[in-house]
Amino acid sequence: MAILEVKNIEKHFGSTQVLRDVSFTMEEGSALAIIGSSGSGKTTLLRCLNFLETPNGGTISVKGETLFDAAMQTKTGDKELREKRLHFGMVFQSFNLFPQYTALENVTLAERLLAAEQPDYKVNKKEILARIDEHGKELLAQMGLSERMDHYPHQLSGGQQQRVAIARALALKPDILCFDEPTSALDPELTGEVLKVIRGLADQKTTMIIVTHEMAFARDVADNIIFMDGGVIVEQGPAHEVIDDPKEERTKQFLSRYTQG
């Protein structure tokens, strides 16, 4: 069974159609790269998956559970929405860290808030918070940030902030980790730091969706690639086939323009 099934997703803002009949599936432990020009619908698709936007049509299922069905959609309460979002960990291009919190506090915040809603929280608060902090420290160590746990975002480089953001996205153990152009705000040296972390996650068979303009990286790390243009999926398939031997003319034109800079 596929871990993610996306069927016939539609999204419009007023009269502007942003996504049209978008369908794909993912297997657990695989990495999917989504490529395409700016305005092709890549980020909107991720935001629909993470319920930051509500699709106007289609269905989204994770592990066989239907999280969204436009045909049966009713108003979703805040608690139900939070539960749906737990399936996806989101890493934004601009980090989106809370400036008033340290790296460790940014990583553990969501876990602390969820823990406070549990019935045994007041009785076992000390032990629960200690466990959450230990988990956060382990994640930051995995990101190579053991010496930066008490630093605030303004004390960190862009690459370090993005690695904190990745640790934060991993904290609640999502089924699928989503990256929205995670290196677009970084210079080349810091880009390498973040891409190395993502490569490591791919090696660990973390299920990931990566919106990226790094074509070589997408080819090397992703199992499959989707090329989008004008809100539709123009071509999808194994990464090396889409990059090295695209079948669709629009894919060829995009890759040609990109290669030429």
Write up what this structure looks like.
- The mean pLDDT is 93.
- The chain is of the alpha/beta class.
- Helices cover 40% and strands 24% of the residues.
- The protein has helices spanning 42-49, 78-85, 103-115, 121-142, 158-170, 188-203, 215-221, 239-244, 249-259; strands at residues 4-13, 16-26, 31-35, 57-62, 65-69, 88-91, 176-180, 208-211, 224-229, 232-238.
- Helix 3 packs antiparallel against helix 4 and helix 5 packs parallel to helix 6 (188-203).
- The strands form two sheets. It has a six-stranded mixed sheet with strand order 6-7-8-3-9-10, sandwiched between helices. Strands 2-1-4-5 form a four-stranded antiparallel sheet, with helices on one face.
First and last CA, distance: 40 Å
Q: Unreliable segments (pLDDT under 50, ≥5 consecutive)?
A: none
Tell me the Rg in angstroms: 19 Å
Mean pLDDT: 93
Q: Sheet with the most strands?
A: 6 strands, mixed
Give the amount of beta strand, in percent.
Answer: 15-25%
* DSSP summary, beta strand count: 10
Structural class: alpha/beta
If strands are numbered along the chain, what order do they take across the biggest sheet?
Answer: 6-7-8-3-9-10
Total number of helical segments? Answer: 9
Q: Note the overall shape.
A: globular
What order do the SSEs take from the amino end to the carboxyl end, as H and E? EEEHEEHEHHHEHEHEEHH
Helix content: 25-40%
